[in-house]
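FIELD: query
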Amino acid sequence: MATRLVRFSVDLLEAEARSTGALCAMLQVAEPGSWPPPFNDAGVRDWFLDQLRSDAERARWLGYYVISSVDGAETLVGTAGYKGPPVADGKVEIGYSLVGAYHRRGIGSEVVGQLVSGAFSDPRVRRITAETPMSFGASRGLLEKCGFRLTGQKLDPEEGELALYEYVRG
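FIELD: result
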C-alpha cells in the first residue's frame, strides 16, 4: 500500500477549516466517509495554524495529512506528526490518528515508520515517544509492532489513563 504524508501548511489548514471537500480538492484526493479523525478537532487544527503562523520553520516538526491508496483511489485517511522539534535531551513525540474506516489496513504501521525515519534523519533525535489511551489496544499493538516499548502510564485530566511508549535510536 502506498501511504504518503503531506506537510500541513496555513493554506491547507485554512481549507480544512472551510470544509473537508475544500481540503481534499487542494490535496487532489478523495474525501473520506467521515472527518476529522479522533483527537483532531477544530481546536487542534487551530493550534497547528497558530504554530505555523508564529514560526514557519517549525513546519517539519508539526503535522501532516495522511494520504493512502485505498479502494482504488488516493484518499485522505488521517493526520500524523510531531508535537514540536526535538527538546534538549534529544526527545521528540509523535502522534497519529486515522479515520476508523481505515484501521487495520497497514496504514498506521506505514505512518509510524515514516515518522520514526523522519525523526531519526535529524541527528539531534535520540529517542521518540508516543502516548495513547490505555483502552486503545490496537494503537498500543501498532506501537509495539513498530519497535516502541511501554515505559509507563499517566493520568491525563482530559484523555484519561494513557500508556507511554518510547523508541530509542540504535
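FIELD: remark
The radius of gyration is 16 Å.
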